[in-house]
Design goal:
Shape: globular
Structural class: alpha+beta
CATH architecture of the largest domain: Sandwich
Helix content: 40-55%
Number of helices: 8
Oligomer: single chain
CATH class of the largest domain: Mainly Beta
Strand content: 15-25%
Distance between the termini: 12 Å
Radius of gyration: 18 Å
Largest sheet: 4 strands, antiparallel
Length: 230
């Protein structure tokens, strides 16, 4: 198990993709660079999730993976993973389900990018980021200390665009600023603003990309990490 400090790169574009990674603790971001040279956050990984699936293509890494918090990562050779899942059909199905789910998220985000306004996209993203917080409070603080820049990187827009969109949401009473600049979201009002049809579709898709796995996902089937570490 590798101990990784915040800001440390786990892999970078062009590096040979030979291994699959399992995040035990911490938070990891997958990033790309736009044609304008700006960093874009492609995905966030939480404990119990896998990343680095480019190893199954026997090519090179396409993105950069960086620890946002102190993290523990288990690195598994792709060949070893394949050998294990071939003997465990249930684990193979879970792995395929995880990868197919990510494709569905990507497709949904592309459709939203071309059809929804920045304000609606930002509202959906904010709800997705607080979707797993276990509280009955209507006002929810955005986790991990995300600010305007990180939200812009997740959405593929300029920081100023996010700032203007947040100002619009603030005027509507949907977001507020707590201590130390923490962004706070009013869950019930935001859901009503977005509408049930958008909320159910977008939150369901984005929560996959922004949240820890649900019950029954790979983190509850530790066969791959456990076997690899023996």
């Amino acid at each position: 198990m590798r101990q990784i400090s915040p800001g440390t790169q786990i892999f970078w574009p062009g590096e040979p993709a030979h291994n699959l990674f399992f995040l035990a603790t911490g938070l990891v971001k997958l990033t790309d660079v736009s044609i304008m040279g700006d960093e874009m956050i492609v995905r966030l990984y939480h404990p119990g999730e896998i990343f680095g699936e480019s190893c199954f293509l026997q090519g090179a890494q396409l993105h950069c993976a960086t620890a946002l918090e102190q993290s523990e990562v288990l690195e598994l050779p792709a060949r070893q993973v394949i050998e294990q899942v071939l003997g465990r059909p249930d684990t193979l199905l879970e792995l395929l389900g995880e990868l197919c789910g990510r494709l569905a998220v990507t497709d949904g985000e592309f459709q939203a990018f071309v059809s929804e306004t920045v304000v609606v996209r930002l509202g959906s993203r904010l709800l997705a980021l607080v979707a797993t917080l276990e509280t009955q409070n209507d006002w929810l603080d955005l986790p991990h200390g995300f600010r305007h820049l990180e939200l812009a990187q997740m959405m593929g827009v300029q920081r100023e665009t996010v700032t203007r969109a947040l100002a619009n949401l603030r005027r509507l009473g949907l977001v507020a600023t707590a201590g130390r600049g923490t962004i706070r979201i009013h869950r019930a009002k935001m859901r009503r603003f977005l509408g049930e049809d958008i909320t159910e579709r977008r939150i369901g898709q984005q929560a996959v990309a922004s949240s820890p796995p649900r019950d029954g996902a790979l983190k509850h089937n530790p066969q791959i990490p456990a076997t690899a570490s023996s």
